[in-house]
Amino acid sequence: MNSSIPIAIIGTGIAGLSAAQALQSAGYNVQLFDKSRGSGGRMASKRSDAGALDLGAQYFTARDRRFVEVVQQWQARGWASQWQPSLYNYRDGELSASPDEQVRWVGSPRMSAITRAMLGALPVKFSCRITEVYRGEHHWSLQDAESQSHGPFSHVVIAMPAPQATTLLAAAPKLAAAAASVSMDPTWAVALSFASPLDTRVEGCFVQDSALDWLARSTSKPGRDNSNDTWILHATSQWSRQHIDLAKEQVIEHLHGAFAELIGCAVPAPTFTLAHRWLYARPSAAHQLGALADADLGLYACGDWCLSGRVEGAWLSGQEAARKLLEHMQ
């Protein structure tokens, strides 16, 4: 195989960037594509009047030795920091301190700092939604939503949520069927910002018996703007699915009310609000797919949905896709 012909990678979240780095380190050219205006996927941060908001992944943990080593490198380079929140549980109408002491990491000064640093100078086309992946006699080509073609490519790595990957895997029916079998849950995320700090010790909270699943005091994370007291709320998958098409204003109103009920202090009207809908926030169950591969065709798929659903799973899945690709080329 001519290594001068680039490998296409669709998606610049953790999985796609993990695969891209591994392939580039092995001496292969890559070309990345993403439908968004920037990298990160669910690690992306949104700029707002309340500062940068981490609306997706709130933190990540590291358990696998390989990922632990990478996170330590990120920390040494200033891309990631430990977050040690005052952590609580909410159950049966009561707040209680959480005994959970596992090490949590965040991007610094925002979650997207990690993916931006991983992307570095890799060639990428943003605002480019790929709608078809097709193979000619010798190489792959891509078509985008503007009917523009991209290629040729020696291989294609699809690093997108399973429902979106399914369509692009049409050339490999077995891979498409495997991706189609993975169910992913939605999540409504809401940001609330207050002019003065709320009178509570809570900085992170796992929530039961509520429309909320999780809440975090964003300004408690390292490197964040502390000029306002900003909170991120995540609804449960069940509530999000039941209210998937609810107007954003109504989502904010409902989750703001749920937050005020449980936080245990007076909650004034926020000075800033924002809602974001993640259609494919996390897989409904953990899987052990690693990464999908049709080595003979040269088509691969990876993502957090192939493993644990966590940031670590996304990174490991990207590594596995690259490993399978490189193994076949030797």
From TrEMBL:
GO MF, one annotated term: flavin adenine dinucleotide binding
Residue sites binding substrate per the record: Y59, F60, T61, A62, R63, S98, P99, D100, T187, R310
Record-linked InterPro entries: Amino_oxidase, Bac_renal, FAD/NAD-bd_sf
Keyword check for Protease: no
Cofactors, names only: FAD
Principal EC category: oxidoreductase
Pfam families: Amino_oxidase, NAD_binding_8
Domain of life: Bacteria
Keyword terms: FAD, Flavoprotein, NAD, NADP, Nucleotide-binding, Oxidoreductase
EC number(s) reported in the record: 1.6.3.5
Amine oxidase domain sequence ranges: 111-326
Keyword Cytoplasm included in the entry's annotation: no
Family per similarity comment: Belongs to the bacterial renalase family.
Function description: Catalyzes the oxidation of the 1,2-dihydro- and 1,6-dihydro- isomeric forms of beta-NAD(P) back to beta-NAD(P)+. May serve to protect primary metabolism dehydrogenases from inhibition by the 1,2-dihydro- and 1,6-dihydro-beta-NAD(P) isomers.
Protein name listed in UniProt: Renalase
Organism: Pseudomonas segetis
